[in-house]
Specification:
417 residues, alpha+beta, Molybdenum Cofactor Biosythetic Enzyme, Chain A, Molybdopterin biosynthesis moeA protein, domain 3, 4 domains, 24 strands
């Protein structure tokens, strides 16, 4: 068997050609609004109604005409006759507030016609079917006006945003019970390595913990993920597994065996059944990342060291996932931070560097993690980190520079101290 050679390309070209190589497979589906958490919206949503749909009381109290109580005070209260009660929508129908009258309203209930303000309970004294009002109120006080929160036709949620709990609550408030979202693509993750299979046979429950790392990260990005286990370095087994899994999954990620060592057979196995877009780039760490097109689907070669694996995830898998399966959306938040130290870079390649973030004197600082042995072997660069910076060739970030930090996920905004 001839020695396998990488199909390396410059990083920016590799990304561009990868995006161009695959068809857009974004698919919009309807899901129940109360099950839409974490999905990405496939269309803009507009309010179908005014919210609130009518003037409502902000507090428990009495609906009155403000001019009737313009002279009211604690020492000289105004007496009004109570002519009704409203506890919920619908009970206001048929009620009209005349001069000299008051109608009890509970919080969030609609106001009767003719009322223009609400007097809270603490400002009235009830007495034999009458109330004594002890405070003057202006028109509109303690009322939420029709359409004050939203007006019919207002844009409320934007295509491409991730649906949050508060978004679901608003949808249900507006009687929107189904929402158009992008189908979550199915990603299958296989770990490659005879040594991993040996660990599995010895009772290690998670010999391929990087698959868990990538899988859980992909779920936060908007994908469905299956961890498919471990396969050996045998090229025949790799080919058979990949061909079988591309029948089921939108994307396949193979972790391990991506380099050109004597025991790295993934590239050799796949070049016989697919079209390599690239294998190898000017990105560090992550140089031996790759993607091959098999049956029209992307199969990623993910390096087996953690720094390189996570670099491959964020710089190759994530962009393709967003561009071709989730409508061009972006689910990773960004912050701008001041560098706490210089970042060594290489003149001809892109540098991927994880960073910690800290608030110091009302400013966010980014602390780049030291690059040791390629920055690829230590999980703590991720557990201590909050995100990463991507530095183009020829740029030498220095202490005090403001840099864009892409957070690992929306969870990373928690705990920046």
């Amino acid at each position: 068997m001839a020695r396998y050679k990488l199909k390396a390309k410059p990083f920016h070209r590799a990304v561009e050609e990868m995006i161009d190589a695959f068809e857009d497979r974004s698919t919009a589906i309807y899901v129940p609004s109360d099950s839409a958490l974490g999905y990405i919206l496939a269309e803009d949503i507009y309010s179908p109604i005014d919210l609130p749909p009518y003037n409502v009381a902000f507090y428990d109290g009495y609906a009155v005409k403000s001019r009737d109580i313009s002279s009211a005070s604690a020492s000289s209260p105004v007496e009004l006759k109570v002519t009704g009660n409203i506890y919920k929508a619908g009970e206001e129908k048929g009620l009209y507030l005349e001069r000299g009258q008051a109608i009890y309203v509970s919080a969030n209930s609609p106001l009767p016609e003719g009322a223009d303000t609400v007097v809270r309970m603490e400002y009235v004294e009830e007495k034999n079917g009458y109330i004594l009002v002890k405070k003057a109120m202006d028109a509109g006080e303690d009322i939420v006006h029709k359409g004050e929160d939203l007006q019919k036709g207002d844009l409320i949620l934007v295509r491409g945003q991730v649906i949050r709990p508060q978004d679901i609550a608003l949808l249900l408030e507006l009687n929107i019970h189904r929402v158009n979202v992008y189908r979550k693509p199915m990603v299958g993750i296989l770990s490659v390595g005879t040594e991993l299979k040996e660990k599995l046979s010895m009772g290690f429950p998670y010999p391929d913990n990087y698959s868990i790392l990538l899988g859980e990260s992909l779920k936060l990005m908007g994908a469905e993920v299956d961890i498919l286990g471990v396969i050996s370095d045998n090229p025949v087994e790799i080919r058979e597994e990949v061909l079988e899994k591309t029948e089921v999954y939108d994307i396949i990620a193979l972790i391990g065996g991506a380099s050109i060592g004597l025991n790295d057979t993934t590239g050799h196995a796949l070049e016989e059944i697919g079209e390599f877009i690239f294998h190898g780039t000017t990105l560090s760490p992550g140089k031996v990342s790759g993607v091959v097109k098999i049956r029209g689907k992307p199969v990623f070669l993910v390096p087996g060291h953690v720094g390189s694996a996570i670099s491959c995830l964020y710089n190759f898998i994530y962009p393709l996932l967003m561009a071709k399966y989730l409508g061009g959306s972006s689910t990773l938040p960004k912050v701008y931070a001041e560098l706490a130290s210089d970042v060594p870079t290489k003149p001809r390649g892109y540098t991927f560097r994880t960073v910690s973030l800290k608030w110091i004197d009302d400013k966010i600082y980014a602390f780049p993690h030291e690059k040791r042995l390629g920055g690829s072997t230590l999980l703590t660069v991720l557990t201590r980190g909050r995100g990463f910076i991507l530095i183009p060739p020829g740029v030498k970030p220095s202490r005090g520079d403001i840099v864009e930090v892409i957070l690992f996920s929306h969870l990373e905004s928690i705990g920046i101290k």
